[in-house]
Every structure is written in C-alpha cells, then in structure tokens.
Amino acid sequence: MKALHGGLAIALIVLTAVPAAAQRPSNSRYANGQRMPLAPVPHSGEPVAPFFEGWYRNDDGTFTLSFGFFNLNQQEILEIPHGPDNFLEPAEFDGMQPTHFPVEPRRDRGVFVVTVPASFEDGEQRVVWTITANGQTTSVPARVGYSALQLDYAPRAMGSVPPDVRFSPDGPVGRHIKGIWAEPRTATVGEPITLSLWVEEVSVRAEHDRLNTDVGVEVSWFKHQGPPAPVIFEEWQIEVESGEGEATTTATFTAPGEYLLRARVDNFDANDSSGGDQCCWTNAYVPVTVRAVS
C-alpha cells in the first residue's frame, strides 16, 4: 500500500507540473498566436483596437457616433497614417480619426465623432473604422439602434455636464465630445507655440440646484493627427483647481507637416463623471501647419 501511495504521489506531481509549465510559455501566447488570458500585457507588438463608444440622437434629426481606441501595448506608441491601415467607411466619413495612438492613456474614449444623416435611423447603415497595427487588423462597426449604446447630452446622476471651453475669454463656447475648433495655426519646427484655453465647470449639484464649485477641471493635450514625429508639450496636463480660468501650455514640433492637436477638458474629479460613464469632457481641436526651419 505504501508503494501505491508513493506512485500515486509521483503521478500527481507529474500531472500538475505539466500544466503549470504550459501556462508560462516564453512568449505568453497559445500556439495559435492568441495571447493567454492572464498573460502580462506586452510592451510592444500588439494591435490597436478601435472602439464604438455609442450614439447620440440630435435635435435636428441627425445622429452622432462616438469613437475611441485601445492601444494594447504598454510601451509602444503607434503612428498609423490615414490610408489602407487606418480608414473609415463609407469614405465620406473618413478623415477625423487619430493617427497617433499613445500609451498614456492606452484606452481613450470619445476622441472623435462622426455625424450621420437621419436615414441612419434604419439601423442598417454603418460606419466602420478599420486599423491595421503590428500586422493585425481590427474593425468596429458603428450604427444607430443599439439601445444599450444610446448616449445622451443630459446631466449625469449628480448633475455633472462637460465643462465649457473657449479659445479666448469672450470667444464662442464649446461643450461635449463634438468639441470646439480653433482657427488654423502656423508654427516652425523647434519653435514653441502657445496654447491657451479658457475653461469653466458648469455642472449643477442636483441636490442643491447650484453650481458645483468643489470640482476642478483638468486639461490634457494630445497629438491627434500628424507626421510620425513627437510633439512636445511643456505641460501636457494642467489642473484648474478652481474649476474656472485659463489653462496655458506650449507645443513644440519636431518635424514639418499638417497636425491636429486635441485637448480633453474634463471634470473627472466629480463622482458621476469618468470616461467609463461617457461623461463629462469637452474636446478642443487645434489644426497646425508646421514649416521647416528656413
């Protein structure tokens, strides 16, 4: 009996040792190339996943489709120009998607929108975003009609709404993911340009029907589109603790070309506001033409 027990113990050790070794291959992938569920996120070599965040019904009968992305790499920043590796279909909606996919944040929501006509209410028509990165192609279809993905412009549970954003103290105001656009700017390689936004937290505390003055506003700057060269922000994140005021930084370009910068202005310090809640931030876009040094 003792020999039987000893043999059984050895068998169990062998049986348990094989799966344990198999769960930790050097490349953290199955033989079919798929990453194992609990494997560490690779530093590089992974794709970018386009995301359809949801759809909005507009007062004029049109619909707005919101898109974001997830860079599945921990350290690899990807530059994917518009074209066969980064496009929207139908072609009439192509062009607003980012070409720069950072690792901070890796998952970014509502970075751009597409407005489609009222005919999309049929639920059959789609806008499809396709990205090919590191040899892997991923696509996401966006359409009107999924009730679980219907978003709205109304305040959140505790009254939060996106901050108001202006490019000058008395200029036009923008709010929400559709955002606000600056007049085109020009710059020269290596010479910083100033980027200023006037922001205001305008959420109302639902229980007191008054402005929420306890929440600050954060401004985060990103290269949205442009050549595969860094854009250096003096400060890429600026906290406006009072919730109202001017947020200023500079951007320095390292290569000539056509760029589109985006600022995300959010009040994520509020309890009912976060990217996962699809609220509450405003996009601000700045097109910049950068010239080479003469």
How would you describe the overall organization of this protein?
- By secondary structure, the protein is mostly beta strands.
- It folds into three domains: 1-38, no CATH class; 48-151; 164-291, Sandwich (Immunoglobulin-like), CATH 2.60.40.
- It is built from one helix and 21 strands.
- The strands form six sheets. Strands 11, 12, 16, 18, 20 and 21 form a six-stranded mixed sheet that branches.
- It starts with a helix and ends with a strand.
- Mean pLDDT is 88; it is low at 1-27.
Ordered list of secondary-structure elements with their pairings:
Elements: H1 2-22, E1 48-57, E2 63-71, E3 78-79, E4 86-89, E5 100-101, E6 107-116, E7 127-133, E8 136-142, E9 150-151, E10 164-166, E11 180-181, E12 185-188, E13 193-200, E14 204-205, E15 210-211, E16 217-225, E17 231-233, E18 237-240, E19 244-253, E20 257-266, E21 281-291
Parallel strand pairs: 1-9, 11-21, 12-21
Antiparallel strand pairs: 1-2, 2-6, 3-5, 4-7, 7-8, 10-13, 13-19, 14-15, 16-18, 16-20, 17-19, 20-21
